[in-house]
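Usage example:
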Amino acid sequence: MRYEAPTSTREAIALMSGAKGDAYLLAGGTDLLVRMRGEFIDPDLVVDIKRLPGIQEIRKTARGFSIGAGVPCAALGRHKPLLRAWPGVVEAAQLIGSDQIQGRCTIAGNLCNASPAADSVPALVAATAKAVIVGPGGRRRLAVEKIITGPGATSLGKGDIVSAIELPNRPPKSGDAYLRFIPRTEMDIAVCSAGVSLTLGPRNVVKQARVALGAVAPTVVLVPKAARAIVGTRLEDDALQRLAAACEAACSPIDDKRGTVEFRTEVAGVLARRAAVIAYERARKKR
Amino acid sequence: MKGIPVSTTVNGDDVEFVCDGRETLLDVLRNHLGLIGAKEGCGTGDCGACSVMLDGQLVCSCLVLGAEAEGREIETVEGMADGEKLHPLQQRFLEHAALQCGICTPGFLIAAKALLDHNSSPSESEIRYALAGNLCRCTGYDKIVRAVRAAAGDVRRQQKARARRKAAAQN
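Running the assembly step on the lines above writes:
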């Protein structure tokens, strides 16, 4: 196996697009190395992106935040402006694994690994996050929900590299939240999960909302109907009930020992409700 | 197979080694550098027995490639004691019998040190969260948590003594 750690993006793209055999990108390695060691994959080439310029930085831009693909999730929580603007995204990213894993795992990797249960992805989808993709065709931005096409499958082409995840600036009175169900308090994979992002208008009425669910379908699902259920409301009980019902209707989960179809479906609605309430309180307390 | 030459720093010493692309940092520490403190429990990042510090960040060395260590700074359990003088965590683990077979101990020590280095007054709950990535199958966790709490007290006393000495030197 060849290991390369290019220091220019052009070199990284050339290595990936010119690779014969199986080539993989290495960011935090917390999924890739497990699959290598478990002999689920047998790479001919591994391209470590962590030495690319800017890849380990969280930058404040005119549009919002740009989180380099090599930034470990632990660093998100240490970035105060990001934590203030997007607490839901940060809490989702920080639910992944132990402190040891947090020191390595990345949100770009969590996205590209394309697990239906990826913790950061529902929060990113709710947040209208975009992936910055560099590749043989140049540079482009794509909504994160357009990246994942199925369990373990993405829309990325040969030589494409997600170099950063972008989060927009927040209008005033905005909040987000992410909740997951696991049968213990730490170190587990979501049985189901929900991310909610919303913005309040005059008199604290919800002006805009996005609701996304994890681990209840082959990909993370955006549920526009759930968002519509709370827009124009102050999260009164009936609005929350409609939100939960819309979420339940959007679920098509698997049935396994970690959760039955009925359980995942019902709990997804409950989590979406609770996440909406947390996001609302966060928005209300902001100026 | 062509080896990858790597220059790195381990416990403050410059170190050079040649590794295969597939070898993990844990393989390198144990098989090339003779540092057998870090252990392989699971090889999948679940048990924390291979915990080391990489550029000041706690990581599982089984999930880091050896080649990634180029130009980085690695700290292992072998660098924890100051010569013959044990680190407070090591001393308190002994006093509290916070180990039986010892396989998990280097990982616990490194993870607990990572916690105390930025928070010398952790609550019990903070200790348990900080050590959630380390599994022990012998003692249960209570003795380990008690040892870490006691060591935190030692670290705080050391910090106070250092501050007093510094203040005295300035006067």
